[in-house]
Amino acid sequence: GDLFLFINAMSYAFYLVLVKPLMSKYAPITVITWVFTFGLGFVCIYPPTLSGLFQTNFTGFPNEIYLKIAYIIIGVTFLTYLLTIYGLKYLSPTVSSSYIYFQPVLVIIFAFLFTFLNWSADYTDTITIQKMGYMLLIFTGVYLTSKATTQKT
User: Fold this and answer.
1) Domain extents for the chain?
2) CB under 8 Å to 36, separation ≥6 — which residues?
3) Fewest 10 Å CB contacts: which of 18, 27, 63, 94?
């Protein structure tokens, strides 16, 4: 798991640096279209993906599942990457990537909100002092890194 987390972080950093020059030439929607096209190609050639895809009974899925999949693909993935690419047009990759560290705060806020609105099961009991401490460490690291970068310029 740690290896995949490291690979993910390195891939995202590489992606942000690679996409920044493309933003001066192309519109965000063009860049994101090609990013997702190449991503789909890589997912399709990954053997475990193909075998699972062919063994899945899609007719057994209720409509609710298709709506959730559409939300994940369009709302959470496509729009997030589109906004990130749009941000890269005006910001440095460092500033743009720092926004990802606000995810722990948003997760906590939405966990309490969804529980309050009765939209999901109560997952707030999994939020512990230890996890809050980890979140504080992440924010401290991001703050110190951005402060050091600001002082150098």
Assistant:
1) 1-90, 94-153
2) 78, 81
3) 63
